[in-house]
Amino acid sequence: MVHQMNMTDDLPLAYFLYNRDYEVVDCNREAVNIFARDKGRSFELVRTYLISHARYIYPNYESDKEFTEQVIRESCKQALQEGVFRFEHTYYTLSGDAIPCEVTILPVQLGDGQGYVHYLRDLHDNQRIQSEIRRREIAEEENRAKSRFLARMSHEIRTPMHAVLGIVELLLQKEDLPADVYESMARIHASSGLLMSTLDDILDLAKVEAGKLEIVRVPYETARLISDTVRLNQVHGMNKGLSFDIKVDENLPQRLIGDELRIKQILNNLLSNAFKYTQSGAVSLSVGMEKDRNGDPCISFVVGDTGRGLTKEQKDRLFDSEFTRFGVQGIEGASGSGLGMSVVNQLITLMNGTISAESELEKGTRITVRIPQPLDGAETVGKEKADKMQSMTLACPGGIASAASPQPQPVDRLPMPYGRVLVVDDVESNVYVVQGILEHYEIGVDTAQNGMEAVEKIANGCSYDIIFMDQMMPEMNGEEATRRIRDMGYTQPIIALTADVVGKDEQVFIDMGFDGLVGKPIDLENIERYLTYYIRDKYMSSTVVKPVILAIDDSPAALTMFSEILRSDYRVLAARTGKTGLAILEKYKVDLILLDIAMPELSGFDVMKLLKEKGYEIPVIIVTASDVARHQVEGMVLGAVDFLRKPLEKQTVLQRVKLHLGECK
């Protein structure tokens, strides 16, 4: 019988046709591929050979012929009785290789009587799939274990380093230190800072490898990014008498969408290296906007220097993932882990950007970075703001006092005797450092040794301008303590104080219920930013009576936007739940409420009903992302004076708020 091409040749299963005498009379192409693939090139010849030798695909056929034939007969009879019969069986190719198969037998009618079709599915694929699934599970568990280890090590190393750096910094601020003591302390501080920088590089690389480093894309101000980076690096140029030249394109967009923190990290690393390897001359930073090959907008940074430059071999290895730090003998301050440029390269790759280097030995280096960043509006920084940023240019040929003859510089911080904070930390040295920092501001400081003690203080009626809450504590951690404090209706800011920074950024802690993050070791500029915003600005502006607006929305992004839009003209109170919003109303006089209608537990409509029951006569503007007209109507029926639709527009929000506060002329 000559095999006719039919649909069985397209099946991914081996097919054998048995006659009424349980003999193989036909098979398909997949059967030939599996069981006789090495028996010749002609399909028809190999098929014929396989049919005549099909009995040999059963194991030990020669020694158990009768048993094998009985198994075939019984299996076919069972298929005839049940309509289908399935089982698993190991066959052998004609070359002797074992093939585990899932067998399905179906009875069919042939011209000369009863027949049976055997479909054989090679289970090797299943085994490979299961093996791959297991391999991935093992890899994921290894990554999770690595992440847990990194988080633990980060906390365990940063906690004592926080104490070392903090105490040394406190000592450096004393005005009566002898010069030799100051010099020794300054060297300890510099070495400790270098150790922390190395740790950060290692952690970042490990996070990339573990797939835990995420790029957070949110709107940010380009001018702030540039000015913050320039200020951080100016001191390097001052210490070495270098010029720091800055050029900003006036057509640079005012706002972009991307990971501002990671872009700052990239720029800081590039500028730090430029100053490190430049002994005389200048370091330059140029910022502009370009388009990539797809026409998408990219922010571009060009960092140049007149330093020692690189050989071709060094330039080719500049972005390697392995340790890369070229000879630095004789270069003052040129130390580091050598991992920084690898971290930079990894971050840029994660953001789909590019980095390239041009360098000539003894003449300097020029590094260009381009990172895709969507626009957030059409406004540009403009000539005035660009000129202002460029005026930060530094020219200091004489330098300042060298590290060999340091002069203690008293810390110039404006006092805030009206402020009061709570520091919650189970490590005594950490509390000591924070207290020492806050002493310079003359702020009242209360302390708690764990989360439970902090909760008890709030339950007993204590109130603070800021709570600095350690995240990892025994008995009750910072997240749980913050949740319990918020459940009491406490609305004052709670800032996470933590050494656990692996795979986390500020937004992670905001989602936990905190209002911000101060990492350990403490960045003084960071902690002062919170003190200024939540204490100094609040009390200094208290003589000017501003209308108070309460924004109730479960979206942190929406609350941030309301604050950004309104805080210059209004005092903005924020609540992430309806329950918290109602608790705020019991403590503060509010002039207007911005109320999201789609919130869990207590919706905006529920809040409005409770406002009416409690007798509050405060204008309410409902905020919604819904286009459903009845939602707007329902809000108006419940007493809303207006509605705003998300996404929010600055001018629209300001116009509606002013209208209902009677400020529109």
Cα separation of the termini: 98 Å
Overall geometry comes to extended
Main pleated-sheet profile:
5 strands, antiparallel
Low-confidence stretches: 1-5, 321-338, 394-412
Give me the oligomer status.
Answer: single chain
Helix content: 40-55%
Can you count the helices? 20
Mean pLDDT: 79
Account of the 3D structure:
The chain is α/β, with parallel strands linked by helices and 665 residues long. A hairpin with a 5-residue loop joins β3 (85-92) and β4. The chain is built from 20 helices and 22 strands. It is extended, with a radius of gyration of 36 Å. 43% of the residues lie in helices and 21% in strands.
List keywords for this structure.
single chain; 43% helix; extended; alpha/beta; 20 helices; five-stranded antiparallel beta sheet; 22 strands; disordered N terminus; 665 residues
SSE diagram, text form:
Layout: E1 14-18, E2 24-27, H1 29-35, H2 43-52, H3 65-82, E3 85-92, E4 98-110, E5 113-122, H4 124-172, H5 179-209, E6 218-221, H6 222-240, E7 243-248, E8 255-258, H7 260-276, E9 282-291, E10 297-305, H8 312-316, H9 340-350, E11 354-360, E12 364-372, H10 382-390, E13 420-424, H11 428-439, E14 444-448, H12 451-459, E15 466-470, H13 478-487, E16 494-498, H14 506-512, E17 516-519, H15 524-540, E18 548-552, H16 556-566, E19 571-575, H17 578-587, E20 592-596, H18 604-614, E21 620-624, H19 629-637, E22 642-645, H20 650-660
Parallel strand pairs: 7-9, 13-14, 13-15, 15-16, 16-17, 18-19, 18-20, 20-21, 21-22
Antiparallel strand pairs: 1-2, 1-5, 3-4, 4-5, 6-8, 9-10, 10-12, 11-12
Helix pairs in contact: 1-2, 4-5, 4-11, 5-9, 6-7, 7-9, 12-13
